[in-house]
Design a protein that fits this description.
By secondary structure, the protein is α/β, with parallel strands linked by helices. The chain is 46% helix and 15% strand. The protein has helices at 2-27, 41-44, 55-64, 84-93, 109-114, 118-133, 149-168, 191-198, 210-215, 220-226, 250-255, 257-260, 276-289, and strands at residues 34-36, 68-71, 74-75, 78-79, 97-102, 138-141, 172-176, 184-185, 189-190, 204-209, 233-236, 264-267. Strand 8 (184-185) and strand 9 form a beta hairpin. The longest helix is centred in the N-terminal third of the chain and has 26 residues, at 2-27. The termini are far apart. 36% of the residues are buried.
């Protein structure tokens, strides 16, 4: 009898707790927040390894309150093994929009040495067309590792060419950082600073991953002030769930978003304290409830 009573109490407390969460979510203002689908890779896969259909996951993300997606599944003209048009229809069918995508193609050694990027740019022509058909606003290169300043300079020129092609198609092209960009290349230049100074703002923006900036022992706000207007998209990330670590000054970041040039924000959760769905829901709730996060950063 005692055990049955204890179970009944636990069930009641769980119901009350769940009700409180639901009530808090209803009171939280609606905000434009995208999610990088790499956050749910264990559910749908990423970068060519797709285990399951994404339909149910997309529906769940929309019901949580996410308003857009950033893909991590472009391959040879397709997104998550679906045509660009089908991917767009699937996302829009659940009430979200297709915002952006992470993908890239590295240069060959011959291209770096010659400065002739024509072969790689053919790949980009097909890629840009697919992203246009999918309704994307941004295409983002997710990472770059180089060992020499010559390589870095070649990539800056390459990114400018990609950006020109994107602009001609009505898209915007950007680069996403990790922590290694804040180290010096050949003890001469800080990689990210060199990239910011040697790519054309008309053609290349930067998707700042705020967590990795902090891990690189740098300040997001300092970069906003040094390179105003260059950071059109922010990856909002923490060590685990957003707001969990206390390491990232999200209030200062968002209060300086106008200086940065922010147009969109994207949640990415790479590590989890709970199951995936709980973690990404908690991360969104943090942003929905934070008074310093605006309802939208879009100029549209």
């Amino acid at each position: 009898m005692r055990n049955k009573l204890l179970v009944a109490v636990l069930i009641l407390l769980t119901a009350v707790f769940t009700s409180d969460i639901a009530s808090a979510r209803q009171k939280a203002p609606k905000k434009d927040v995208a999610i990088q689908l790499y956050s749910v890779r264990s559910l749908i896969g990423s970068y060519g390894n797709y285990q399951n259909d994404y339909t149910a996951v997309l529906k769940s993300l929309s019901e949580m309150g996410y308003t857009a997606v950033e893909a991590a599944g472009y391959d040879d003209g397709m997104f998550y093994s679906k045509s660009p048009e089908q991917f767009r229809r699937d996302v829009e069918a659940v009430g979200m929009k297709v915002l952006s995508s992470h993908c890239t193609k590295g240069l060959t050694e011959a291209e770096i040495q010659s400065g002739d990027f024509s072969e790689s740019l053919k790949w980009w022509d097909k890629c840009i067309a697919a992203h246009k058909a999918a309704g994307m606003t941004y295409i983002v290169t997710p990472s770059l590792k180089v060992k020499t300043v010559k390589e870095l300079d070649a990539y800056c020129k390459y990114y400018n060419e990609i950006g020109k092609r994107c602009k001609q198609s009505g898209l915007k092209y950007g680069y996403h950082n990790h922590a290694h960009e804040f180290k010096k290349i050949e003890d001469q230049v800080v990689m990210w600073d060199y990239m910011l100074e040697n790519t054309d703002p008309e053609y290349v923006f930067y998707q700042m991953d705020v967590y990795w900036v902090v891990m690189g022992q740098a300040s997001p706000v300092d970069y906003f002030e040094k390179y105003p207007g260059r950071f059109k998209v922010l990856h909002i990330k923490d060590r685990r769930e957003i707001g969990q670590s206390g390491m990232v000054g999200f209030d200062a970041i968002f209060k300086n978003a106008e200086t940065a040039g922010v147009e969109s924000i994207v949640v990415e959760v790479e590590r989890y304290s709970f199951d995936v769905e709980t973690s990404i829901r908690m991360s969104l709730d943090y942003l929905l409830e934070a008074p310093f996060v605006k309802a939208s950063y879009s100029n549209k």
